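Lecture notes, unit on protein representations.

Consider one protein chain, 358 amino acids long.
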Amino acid sequence: MKLEDIAKKAGVSRSTVSRVINNDPNVNAKTRERVWTVIRREDFHPNPSARALVTRRTEIIGVVIPTGENIFFTDNNYFPQLLAGMNLITRQSDYAMLLWLGELTENDDKLMRRITNNRMVDGVIVASMTVDHPLFQRLISIRNYQLVMIDRPLVNADQISYVTVDNFAAAKQMVEYLIRLGRRRIAHITGNLGIADAQDRLAGYKAALAEAGLPVDPDLIYEGHFSRQDGYAGTMRLLPHQPDAIFAAGDTIAVGVLQATREVGLDVPKHLSVVGFDDIDVAQQSFPTLTTMHQPVQKKGETAARLLIDLIEGRVPSPQHILLPTELVIRQSCGGPSPVSHVPYPTSLSGDRALQTA
């Protein structure tokens, strides 16, 4: 069936059918509905190549997650939740999604050219990309290329659309909660400081300590990435300084913290409070269950996809900056107010040798 056939059955011109299919606003509402009734009844599917010539759109969005592929096969479901949200909106909007997954370097020039070739996709969502990443520099240099970032970009933020949470305020709230519990030697294991999320959480941690009149001790800060391995290594490095709490910049980091404390014989939360950020699945599956800062990860994916499609179709101007809410979720890993639940470290730990050599 062709456009001419739909036009004849709907009693309109071929050009009117074309305008209806391509969402031209200059079509009477009754006429639009009459055309769509015929299209649905006849199960008509427009030729995507022909439609692209008219709209100059492919109705495909790109998603770039520049991290190791094994992130999808570990205990971190942050990125799968993001993708679930994006997929929901693209399907509802009759768009397709093209995923580029994996670490990119300057040597991946051919792949980066494909990603930035706007004949393949109408726009791109980028998640967790460091400011010095070569692809980021390419993306922001292309004119009339729709880009939405998940996380606030560290440069050119006023020119780029993004969806995130207030990481500074959320981290500050978390540390203030620990302070109210009586914790005074609060350590922090950061995420990747090339990403705004990690920088803002570190800044919120420092601000809460400063407002409470507590020193910011460099020995109580371990620079890591959003991984279990860094949680484990950071804990081994921090424990000789006897923190009474560890604020992990991500729940996956916190899982590594809990693993390390078990190995050296510390009881969480009796000897050490542990808190995380994200509220992904491992927060409820850990032992003890993890006090954390909930952020709506799937909602971030949905919001980013909806925003990108709105930008592509001209419904909103660029740039757009969207902050989603967070919520402190209190579980078992932080304990109650001192001195009831927090006691000094044991004089002998089963992992003393590991602590000395970390």
